[in-house]
Design a protein that fits this description.
Elements lengths: L1 H14 L7 H32 L18 H37 L2 H15 L3 H27 L16 H25 L3 H9 L4 H29 L3 H6 L19 H8 L6 H29 L9
Helix pairs in contact: 2-11, 3-4, 3-6, 3-8, 4-6, 5-6, 6-8, 7-8, 8-11, 10-11
Length: 322
Amino acid sequence: MTTTTTDTESTRSAVSPKAVLRPGDRIFSGTALGAGIVILVTLAAVAVFLVVQAIPAFAPDTSNNQILEGQSFITWVWPFVFGTLWSSLIALVIAAPIAVGIALFISHYAPRRLAGVLGYIIDLLAAVPSVVFGLWGALTFAPMLVPFYKWLNTNLGWIPIFGGTPSGTGKTILTASLVLAVMILPIITAICREIFLQTPKLHEEAALALGATRWEMVRMAVLPFARSGIVSGAMLGLGRALGETMAVTLVLSPLGIVTFNLLNPENPTTIPAIIALRFPEAHDEGVNTLIAAGLILFIVTFAVNFVARWIVSRRAEFSGAN
């Protein structure tokens, strides 16, 4: 038995010799490996920098800290964490259904030429700088929303989030969330569009052959296949909204409050916005405090993107071929 096994292995080695890597293959594999290592080292360096620089912000005595002004770091940063999560969540709830609808229209309903034009516009929208969105939101979009906010307050004021006194300028947490929704719309749309286009054609054709309408085919074949891809795209868009700075800074005032009201002139702001607004005047422990806030944002954003990648890796593959 041992002799037979050895002979078989020798025969396989003779038939299938080990491939010899050419210089170009070695260069390419080495470059790819080096790029991956650089990314990991950079991420680790950023994490170490944030942790080391954030330690002074957790000191028991904060009386000399011009940012904390005697209060603890957790007490100071909590309203900004709330504002970051609250505005990003509202933006995600608004943008995700619209993005899925646009992606479905591009992939399964629009004529080929129109689909190409719409896809190009969506990709172009993702390239617009965030400061442009912020200026548009503060100078044009916010005043346009004032009559709508008054209507919401008059007719739906019995709902707590629409109660209180509506802002006369339109610069509210809802306006900031709408601007964020426009900004993350291209990301979610692009990911959903690619996932929808990967749906096995055999499944689509089988549904249509059984008498399903176009929408029934999408509901039975496309959406189940793309469910996890939609979730991952939405979470990647959420990660983008969590880290947005200029658009929110130009729309919201830097108030450290916690409120769920969407229309009041006093609104919670986000961690990126407060860092951008307070950093020019910060010094000594104040700088460490803002870096500590950045560490909190880094952890939240990293967690969101990690969960998104985990969902992508666990995406269930349908049987069949495209």
